[in-house]
Amino acid sequence: MEKVKFLGIIFHRKLSFFPHLCYLKNKCAKALNLLRVIARTSYADQQTVLHLYRSLIRSKLDYGCVVYGAARDSYLQMLDLIQNHALQLCLGDFHTSPSSSLSVLANETPLYVRRKKLFIQYSLKLSSCLQNPSYSTVFNSKFKVSFERKPYQIPPLGVRIESDLRAVGFLRRNVSKCSIPATPPWVFKQPHIDYSIHQSFKDNTSPEIYTNKFFEFCHHYKDFSRLYTDGSKMGNQVAAVVVYRSTTKTLRLPNTASIFSAELYTILLALPVIEPIPWGHSGPLCHALSLSSLSSLLSMSWTSMRRRRATVPLATPGEWA
What we know:
Elements: E1 3-6, E2 9-12, H1 18-39, H2 46-62, H3 65-68, H4 73-91, H5 99-106, H6 111-126, H7 134-139, H8 144-149, H9 157-160, H10 162-167, H11 207-220, E3 225-234, E4 237-244, E5 247-253, H12 259-274, E6 284-288, H13 291-297, E7 310-313
Parallel strand pairs: 3-6
Antiparallel strand pairs: 1-2, 3-4, 4-5, 6-7
């Protein structure tokens, strides 16, 4: 068998990926015809056509590029023609317009740059999953010396991405390892989050009002044991802290960690603190300062939300992973 299709990618016997690139080119040609028709209409503006390009064509080019990106540059250049033709239709430029100018006007990176970005994102995500079979092939490549002696052969992803990861300052020791829980996630009880305090904006609300609301909230949950969590970042220093009665637990995070990661880690840091608490009809109450981290626990979109005050009653041990 010369070639086989698996998960939408055509694998050749020699792993040249040329058949898949030809298949991808023909598949995008149909979307180009649709783009050509819409671009000639009077009601389609430039941004609308560009949005269609990103949805119908660029998404197809992105899918599986971590795999077929090992093809030769001469084979991958046929995909550049697709992007150039699509940007010409979106911008209404001439066929003789240089590709670099089209990329700048459309705010689109060249495909080889975008593939490199997707390679880095995949490698960074993979670095936290030690159980993934691809981890050892990417980060513990055994054939680096062999490919250095044969520069005309295309090295695997682990060898090709090593210099790019070094350029962005990636260190594996700074990556938190991801572990798969033994309990299925669909049996977990969803945490209850009370957003009553964050209904007012901090910019036009006096601290006295927040203090009164906080006391009212504490009175409403007076049977709960209260914890306080916070994550902070000053310059390159990132830390997480949990306070429960006379117990204070702090943790220094890597300098590259974001404030969002610090806020999430404070909730993870609070779980071992609440395990020894005796359980009755009520559980612990965690006061968190980051609305984005609390919203992410409920799988909500947090990028457009402001950082406001909120509180969350934590679930009992065994209900969370």
